[in-house]
Amino acid sequence: MIIYFTGTGNSRDVAVRLSSILGDNDIIELCGDAIRNKELKAKQPCKAVVWVFPVYSWGVPPVVVKFIKEVKLSGAGAASHHMVATCGDDAGLTANQWRRLISLRNWTPASASTVIMPNTYTLMKGFDVDPEDVALEKLEASKERVADIARRIRAAAVDDDVVKGRFAWFKSRIIYPWFKRFAMSPKPFHATDSCTGCGLCARSCPLGNISVNDSRRPCWGNDCALCLRCYHICPAAAVQYGKSTRGKGRYLNNR
Ligand SMILES: Cc1cc2nc3c(=O)[nH]c(=O)nc-3n(C[C@H](O)[C@H](O)[C@H](O)COP(=O)(O)O)c2cc1C
Ligand code: SF4
Ligand code: SF4
Predict the structure, then answer these.
(1) Which domains does the chain have, with CATH numbers?
(2) Dist. CA 184 → ligand 1 center (Å)
(3) What is the pLDDT of residues 34-68, one digit of tens each?
(4) Phi and psi (nearest 5°) for 96?
(5) What pLDDT digit, counting tens, does each position of 65-81 carry?
(6) Which of 21, 24, 53, 126 has the most CB within a 10 Å radius?
(7) Which of 10, 11, 248, 252 is nearest to 124 (CA)?
(8) How many CB atoms within 10 Å of residue 227?
(9) What is the pLDDT at residue 97?
(10) Residue of 239, 245, 250 to test ligand 2 pocket, by largest number of atoms within 8 Å of CB
(11) Is the CB of 201 under 6 A from ligand 2?
(12) CA of 200 to the centre of ligand 2 (A)
């Protein structure tokens, strides 16, 4: 069973490739009702539950944390759990956090792996999407990496194979809690005058957090994962986050 959360498609891409290599067609996206219902049932008794998600500020995205804590998971009682986290550069101590979360549910954490993918975070000074050649190189390198992770899962590996990066403790233990508290507000999201009112951002939000008002302008609610799908998907590049996304690039993985 493969459970994935994605904003811009990198984690879906990895999850779909794992599903194909492992021959596991029980693949579920965490969005909409799947998140709201907090209930998942494996299609067939499974040996492995694979959690695929992006790294957010050197930790597990809060939306995934909440889901792991609350989900009623049936048909996977005897399964080992594996983490496959996608990140632009490095994951800090994301694997440690994920292992704690899985253990708190009395499930068995097995392997934890990272896949470097094109960066999607653009909301702070100094952060932007990768230049196209860098993004393409990362996508190319991810092919062998995902195949390798599939081999690890098949072999029931129980170790970490993660890119932690420098200052991992500081990033995960100090910056991650700060980021969660002060840098995840959806309030700065707005649409500029180039918005055409197409509604794609609203239809695409994995949490259904965007509505379109009578003037056909998107309005953001408070239930936001900060996945940035609305920002990256807008065909008119009209979605901005305060002033911090001005002039920044956009990226979507539609593979
Ligand atoms: C809110 C947010 C925080 C992020 N934090 C990190 C990070 O700490 N380290 C990193 O290497 N990449 C970080 N990224 C980049 C993503 O983890 C990476 O691009 C990932 O592959 C995106 O996956 P997705 O397309 O499935 O959403 C962040 C992206 C977002 C949106
Ligand atoms: S996707 Fe862009 S153009 Fe379409 S409604 Fe949303 S902000 Fe406006
Ligand atoms: S509002 Fe935008 S950033 Fe927030 S969850 Fe929806 S698509 Fe993601």
Answers:
(1) 2-181 (3.40.50.360), 189-241 (3.30.70.20)
(2) 13
(3) 999 999 999 988 999 999 999 999 999 999 999 99
(4) -65, -45
(5) 999 999 999 999 889 99
(6) 53
(7) 248
(8) 25
(9) 98
(10) 239
(11) yes
(12) 6
